Amino acid sequence: MAIVRLTGRRLAGAWGRGRQLSTKYSELTVGIPKETYELERRVAGTPATVALLKKAGFKDVVIETGAGLGASYGDSDYVAKGASIGSSGDAFGADVVVKVRPPSEAEVAALKGNGQTLISFAYPAINKALIEALASKKQTLFAMDCIPRTLSRGQTYDALSSQANIAGYRSVVEASNEFGRFFAGQMTAAGKVAPAKVLVLGGGVAGLAAIQAAKNMGAIVRGFDVRAAAAEQIEAMGASFLRVDFEEEGSGAGGYAKEMSAEWHAAAREMLTKQCAEVDVVISTALIPGRKAPILVTKEMVGVMGAGSVTVDLAAEAGGNVETTVADRKIVTENGVTCLGYTDLPSRLARTSSDLYSNNATKFLLSIGPFTTKIKDEFEIDYDDDCVRPMLVLDKGELAWPPPPPAPPAAKKDVEGAAAAAAAETVEKTAVPLSPFDEYLRSSLRASAVAATFLGLGSGIDPPILATFALSTIVGYYTVFDVVPALHSPLMAVTNAISGMTALGGLTLVGGGAIPATTAELFGAGATALSAVNIVGGFLVTKKMLDLFKRPDDPDEHPELYAIPVVGTLGAYGAAGLAGAGDLSSVVSLMSGICCIGGIAGLSSQKTARLGNVLGQSGVAIGLGATLGALQPDFATSLQIAGLLGLGGAAGYGIASRVGPTELPQTVAAFHSLVGIAAAATAVGEYAHVVSDAKAMDTATAASLYLATWIGGITATGSVVAFGKLNGNLASAPLALPGRDYLNVGMGAASVGAMGVFLSNPSPATGFAALTAATGLSGALGLHMTASIGGADMPVVITVLNSYSGWALCAEGFMLDSPLLTIVGALIGSSGAILTHIMCEAMNRDIFNVILGGYGTTAKAPTASAGGYQGEHAEIDVDATAALLKEASSVIIVPGYGLAVAKAQYAVAEIAKMLNDSGVKTRFAIHPVAGRMPGQLNVLLAEAGVPYDVVFEMEEINDDFPDTDLALVIGANDTANSAAVEDPDSIIAGMPVIEVWKAKQSIFMKRTMGSGYAGADNPVFYKPNNAMLLGDAKKTCDALRNKIASGE
């Protein structure tokens, strides 16, 4: 039967033909026969792929006896993975036969046909007789050489590339074996050895592999390709790109090269002749699909090469690029040039080439049906599958190749209409750029609002304290911008500790002797004790975190010596007071404020961070001392104060001592709640203390008192809800009550109304009622707004609460006319606000939306889209992962909160050290909001001993992924989720993420395939260059570490 008659029975239709009837895997047997082609040692199935097929549910996998011996796989290796060993007839009689080489006449006869499926190299353009023979048996044939190489999914099944990569590498090995010198130049006592000069013709997969291998051996490498686009790739591999002095583009369809004109060939011959006279080794890789290989190196060019030179022709099987090539032979020309025409280069690395080819073929087989039908265990040919259809050559004997072209683009009218609609939608969504006049007008109006605010404040607040507030806010603003992201967790811990200066307000109310007697004194005692918890616990947590960043070679530190200036300052202050030398309390308070500023500024770098913590402690100690000196309590009251500070400090020490890096976020949230309660308690107590003195209650004092109560209430309840979400006591999903925004607006309006009543100088009963309303409304508002924010935004919520605690302290400073509290409060409030801004930028969140509890938005539900959320995912085991890590030249590890929960950081640190010690460049990529608190993962890695100079922030390392061999994601999901970039309907749309999918290979280590903390599905799981390593992170990391350490 002639091929021409077959074309008359071409399969009707194009991409819309539909699907065949499906067949369950459990009804199918896969056969792997022994390759019989001369010199062929590869095998189409390995024990690893047998295990994949058995796991997928295939009835049986039949391996011909001895099929894997050439690749060093014995029959027992296959049996151990569940295969059956049979005869050649058994393998060829299977429902699906997988081969490497196109079948010979004898092998065609052995096939049973009648719809049987064959997956193999076939080269239908040049093997017409083979296609006719298979068609006569009503065979179904998929050609592994017909993969659509420009399709990203197709790269997983691209056997041409995987085998060409091996051939390119092996060609250099063969050339070096025949070449009589080193490839690398050397300077020795015996003389100088010049490096070899290698010319590689062809910039495809094989050519680039040859360039890389030759460069790694130290040769001077030049590359040439007819496609101009190949120049960048060749030069990126470190070779010089040669250009022909003739303008003609050589790129053809499908990513291949096209045949060039006679004029171009003439110019190329002139250039190559000169090059052949200069180089020592020529490796040619130029092939054109379905055509005889072009002659690039003529006999005359070989004739000008020096004696001892070598040519390796990877196109020998297709006629050769070198005119002197003889297929499967090594010849030596008259002028001493060795010409290699081996056609079995992949077979000379049989095990590796078999592993790669069998992976290509097996994954392709497993995709026929499930990738588009989403039914995992059914084989079904889908004509609309843009990867399967081009590889289908025969369908039950009917010719299906070449495939019809894809559907034509939409009509021009439709395109224009769609473009117009898209443009209109874009105009609606995109704000019109402001004119210069409008920009200046908005800026001037903002400045006017600021001026009006200061004028309003100035009417009731003394100018000195107002100046203190303004300058402290500016200092806090600029201080935080200098803090490196790795230190954001210690920064929040130290500001939390400093915000314990609410104790100063509480101390002003303490009295009554050893036991408080009045309502005001009770509130003051409570505020003092709670603040002490914050001070001691916060500074201890900060110290523990910063100590984790210390390196073995860091110089010794002696922070205890800073007790000298602290004790000296307080001693001099006390002595001056006793001697009647004047009141130094304002000067000492100023010193306290400066130390607190220095404490936060010290967190800007690793070198000064621990000093910053000491300065913060010094500032708080001096502030407490200055306050006690100004109050001059009697002996009994001093005992009460000592008891309150001691009790609170002991509680803080006990809590902080038990906290590990994993519990840091919820601990900080809990400490924030104490600050809020202390601020509110101090404000209510102060009102109880001064309510009978109308002169002490001017408008500014009353407003500050009310705001301290209101902000303290929001901080307290909001922090409790944040603690519950972070600790797992509350669901992470946002609360979406009906009329959520109206509830918030209503409570806000009621709070303003209660403030108006309070400022009207009412009776004590009415004033207490207004403060009670403020406490209740602010508490409810903090609870509801925080509960309305999703768990994924909790890192931002913590920074917001951090800022709130500062503003509460600042309001307390205005209330008590205390410059020190105003300095510290404005410093913490502004620094927390800027940190919130930084976090919102990192998560692409609107800062006002977060602060106002998601105002104006509706909570997005997790969505599954057609963009890759469903489909077949690849799984990998520990052994294969360890092999990939050891074989890589560059690895980036992306840790997430799952690593923290599993406490796997120690094993990961050892893995990174072993890889770096063995020459694998291994680094860590940290997302700004990885974990449940900014900087938490940096602290975890530091705890495990990972040097901070191999830990990089997302924006520092994201551009490196395309050049990275392997990205290993451990316990992270949302921060490495491509849906943020690819799916505008995703709950995390627009959030900057770590782009692990751009690495050559990515591996996600997770317990399950479930979504992350934000509830968003991750399409990276289903990308062709990704594999899932499922299991417990701790056990898996330990196993991975042990495997790498064993050296197996």
UniProtKB/TrEMBL annotation:
Its main location: membrane. Signal peptide: none annotated. It is a multi-pass membrane protein. Homodimer. This is NAD(P) transhydrogenase, mitochondrial. The keyword DNA damage does not apply. It catalyses: NAD(+) + NADPH + H(+)(in) = NADH + NADP(+) + H(+)(out). Residues 176-341 form the Alanine dehydrogenase/pyridine nucleotide transhydrogenase NAD(H)-binding domain. The chain crosses the membrane at residues 465-484, 491-516, 522-541, 561-581, 587-604, 611-631, 637-656, 668-688, 700-722, 820-840. It is found in: Cell inner membrane; Mitochondrion inner membrane. Residues 31-167 form the Alanine dehydrogenase/pyridine nucleotide transhydrogenase N-terminal domain. GO terms for cellular component: mitochondrial inner membrane; plasma membrane. It is an enzyme of class 7 (translocase). In the N-terminal section; belongs to the AlaDH/PNT family. In the C-terminal section; belongs to the PNT beta subunit family.
